[in-house]
Amino acid sequence: MTAPIASKDNSQRELDRLADISRDVIRRCIDAGASQAEVGASIDVGLNVSVRLGETETIEHTRDRAFGVTVYFGKRKGSASTADLAADSIAKTIEQACAIARYTEEDPASGLADADRMASDFPDLDLWHPWDIDVERAIALGLEMEDAGRAVAGITNSEGATVQMGEALSVYANSHGFVGLERGTRHMLSVALLAENEGGMQRDYWYDSVRCADDFGSAAQIGRTAAERTLARLGAQSLSTRQCPVLFAPEIARGLIGHLLSAVSGGALYRKASFLLGELGKPVLPSFIDLVEDPLIRRGHGSAVFDAEGVATRRNPLVEKGVLQRYLLSSYSARKLGMASTGNAGGIHNLCVSTGDDDFAAMLRRLGTGLYVTEVMGQGVSTVTGDYSRGAAGFWVENGQIAFPVEEITIASNLREMYRGIVAVGKDIDPRSHIRVGSILLDQMTVAGG
């Protein structure tokens, strides 16, 4: 059995060991002739237990290690990695990275982030909450979720319940003298159920994801919610082609915001592969919407003191009153664009979308008659053109009340028009993601039957 990192409260000792190895490797890279060097090291431990129809299906213990070395010989870069922390393996990894760098072409944008941007303050963000759970307790939790869901009248089958525990340690160090240590936990409960009647079979699920297991709600309630969602889909029908307002559920709305983040990321911009190229300082959303990155939220899913290059993170607006204030840049993409890093190497950290005062019921009333989307499918989104066309399922709403479930439909528009057509953002925020957003109401999309 693989023990959790914190089983003997040794997480800090493990971090310190990784940090010592990282410092030594950087010194050896410089001694080998590198002008700059950086190291990323991590240890991930997890337990994943799944049950189905009252029986244990899988029990998986994981313990993964990664150690990556990147060196720069002037503007030439080389990287190599290993999962083995033995001295011989690390020595070979350093040798491979240096050999690669000596034979690659120069890239004027390569190199470490600027030394004066390194984080120097390391507040405790309350991200480390090891879950003292054994296999037997995990199985019991899974069965509790599934049993509660299957006990709801109308549920006919189950795809199973899953209990996941995860602990992660990571160190990033570079030749500026920066050494950043992070540790965090992520735990999840989920269950998927099926229901069937004369109209056919339907499937749905529910889950919860937290940093601290004490923040989980009732496992039985997760099962009941999955059952309610599944039963609500029975009798689903298609729709004729029409133009109508569309309301995205919070868990779907965060994907809509995610497309915007992709379009303002440095990689898409310097490759000229974004429909928001050249939109800095211009309106991209309605004036009542702000998007603010807040990386220092305690227990936040995307909280971090520094980014993947050691650059200090900070609370920083992305969109203010609908106007795009900045891009999401690493040091490399920033140099390609002639700009400065925004501390977003590796992505964004806790994006908070401003909301109105409407709860879900009020958002349905604002929708009036239109489509409420609870699921999207397919990859029909182009960050280059903004074209959006995806399969969808959800509910048809009439006069602010859910009328019947729908499926086998396609929703289509262009992201630029969709963003400017946002009518309201609900206060029903989904807390299970680093994108914190409520339901989003759009004035109009094309809806087509299957």
TrEMBL record:
<dbReference type="Pfam" id="PF19289">
    <property type="entry name" value="PmbA_TldD_3rd"/>
</dbReference>
<feature type="domain" description="Metalloprotease TldD/E C-terminal">
    <location>
        <begin position="241"/>
        <end position="449"/>
    </location>
</feature>
<dbReference type="Pfam" id="PF01523">
    <property type="entry name" value="PmbA_TldD_1st"/>
</dbReference>
<dbReference type="InterPro" id="IPR036059">
    <property type="entry name" value="TldD/PmbA_sf"/>
</dbReference>
<feature type="domain" description="Metalloprotease TldD/E N-terminal">
    <location>
        <begin position="37"/>
        <end position="101"/>
    </location>
</feature>
<dbReference type="InterPro" id="IPR035068">
    <property type="entry name" value="TldD/PmbA_N"/>
</dbReference>
<keyword id="KW-0378">Hydrolase</keyword>
<feature type="domain" description="Metalloprotease TldD/E central">
    <location>
        <begin position="129"/>
        <end position="234"/>
    </location>
</feature>
<dbReference type="InterPro" id="IPR045570">
    <property type="entry name" value="Metalloprtase-TldD/E_cen_dom"/>
</dbReference>
<protein>
    <submittedName>
        <fullName>Metalloprotease PmbA</fullName>
        <ecNumber>3.4.24.-</ecNumber>
    </submittedName>
</protein>
<dbReference type="InterPro" id="IPR045569">
    <property type="entry name" value="Metalloprtase-TldD/E_C"/>
</dbReference>
<comment type="similarity">
    <text>Belongs to the peptidase U62 family.</text>
</comment>
<keyword id="KW-0645">Protease</keyword>
<keyword id="KW-0482">Metalloprotease</keyword>
<dbReference type="InterPro" id="IPR047657">
    <property type="entry name" value="PmbA"/>
</dbReference>
<dbReference type="InterPro" id="IPR002510">
    <property type="entry name" value="Metalloprtase-TldD/E_N"/>
</dbReference>
<dbReference type="Pfam" id="PF19290">
    <property type="entry name" value="PmbA_TldD_2nd"/>
</dbReference>
<dbReference type="GO" id="GO:0008237">
    <property type="term" value="F:metallopeptidase activity"/>
</dbReference>
